[in-house]
Write a structure and sequence with these properties.
The structure is a single chain. The protein has 145 residues and is mostly beta strands. The protein has one domain: BH3618-like. The protein starts with a strand and ends in an 8-residue tail after the last strand.
Length: 145
């Protein structure tokens, strides 16, 4: 299947790798299908690209790279919505807000993207109790390479 992307032009993707967000992403509720694409220059970062909208793409990274002891409990509604059977099929990412320079960019640790690697169901989760910020500053030098 061919799609147009924000950063890589037109590419061919495997439809079996499409992530399904049942209710979209907050602010983009109509966008329910995305694909993970690697950023070649830096394996710590990936692109979460909309299948439908060429210009809708988020740069994401593992929150565990940003905060080594990052932790939260997935609520029962999310476990059910994503049909999670065990923790080995869970992947977690955080969206990066790119600014004028990498040094000024931030990562959203308050609302991670959680997805089931087995069935490709995904959801952005808003953490209520954890004290993580939506604009967490971090050092990009520590995640390069």
């Amino acid at each position: 299947m061919k799609i147009k992307t924000a950063y890589m032009g037109e590419i061919t993707i495997d439809p079996n790798e499409i992530l399904h967000f049942a209710h979209g992403i907050p602010g983009f509720e109509e966008e329910d299908k995305f694909i993970l694409l690697p950023l070649e220059e830096n394996s710590a970062f990936q692109i979460l690209q909309s299948i439908r909208t060429e210009q809708l793409a988020f740069i994401i990274t593992s929150p565990y790279i940003v905060v080594s002891d990052y932790t939260f409990d997935i609520d029962q509604a999310t476990i059910k919505a994503l049909d999670i059977q065990n923790e080995n099929e869970v992947a977690v990412f955080a969206i990066i807000s790119l600014k004028d320079s990498l040094e000024n960019s931030t990562v959203n640790l308050k609302a991670p993207i959680v997805f089931n690697t087995t069935n490709k169901k995904a959801k952005q989760v808003i953490l209520e109790k954890e004290n993580y910020g939506i604009r967490h500053k971090f050092h990009f030098e520590s995640v390069k390479g």
